[in-house]
Specification:
Elements lengths: L11 H16 L3 H8 L2 E4 L5 E7 L2 E7 L4 E3 L4 E2 L2 H13 L9 E2 L7 H11 L1 H8 L3 H10 L3 E3 L4 E8 L2 E8 L8 E7 L8 H20 L5
Antiparallel strand pairs: 1-2, 2-3, 3-4, 4-5, 6-10, 7-8, 8-9, 9-10
Length: 220
């Protein structure tokens, strides 16, 4: 499994077919069910039409119903294709299952064990390499991104990718025997909301955002 960014499309033709399939699945659910299961706010706009409003990485977006198009607010600019897919997966998979408050590794996600080493390579290892035992820099970067302090490791922070999709990044300072390390973790309910590939994208995204926050401390 490669590191994904929100803009990469591995196979455009297959990707387009999958988006069509997801939109058809999306249309089978009622607006009331979708709003409840995703934690979004439904705003009608005519008979059986409207928008779901929610946040992705704390940025406002909206998803049209019934056509399933994703827009960034307040500009109404269409979201990039991979972001469209991420939101459609969320809206078709989410079932409103309560967050568990227990954190699991990527290897504990469905089929995640096979790809765990690769995932750790482009998430936890990249974070540990970028911060080089500088706990203060990690804390500063996490807090600039709105992270909520947690109790795991030497420092850990919870981030909300989508209303029911939290992630935690935990960081351990190294010593003479062991190098610094970091890990991206997920709520135990994760499989009820997105695919494992989607969590690979989100893990890569939070790693890159943390590293960018260190390099450009004034940016979010």
């Amino acid at each position: 499994m490669k590191a994904f960014t929100i803009s990469k499309i591995p196979d455009p033709e297959r990707f387009t077919r999958r988006l069509t399939e997801l939109r058809l699945e999306y249309q089978l659910k009622t607006p009331a069910a979708l709003a409840n299961q995703t934690g979004s706010r439904w705003v009608p706009d005519g008979a059986e039409c409207g928008f779901f409003h929610l946040k992705l990485w704390n940025k406002p977006i909206k998803v049209s119903y019934p056509d399933g198009l994703v827009f960034r607010e307040p500009t109404d600019e269409p979201s990039p294709p991979m972001e469209q897919a991420l939101l459609l997966y969320y809206f078709t998979i989410a079932d409103g299952f309560p967050l568990q408050g227990n954190w699991i590794s990527f290897s504990e996600l469905p089929d995640g064990k096979f790809y765990n080493q690769a995932f750790q390579g482009y998430t936890g290892k990249e974070i540990a390499r970028a911060f080089e035992n500088d706990l203060g820099a990690f804390q500063s970067a996490a807090e600039k991104l709105g992270g909520e302090r947690q109790d795991l490791g030497d420092r850990s922070y919870r981030f909300l990718a989508l209303p029911y999709v939290p992630l935690m990044v935990a960081y351990w300072v190294g010593d003479d025997d062991f190098p610094a390390s970091a890990q991206v973790l997920f709520d135990a309910s994760a499989g009820r909301y997105l695919t494992t590939d989607s969590f690979a994208i989100l893990g890569s995204t939070i790693a890159h955002r943390l590293i960018a926050a260190r390099s450009h401390p004034s940016e979010k």
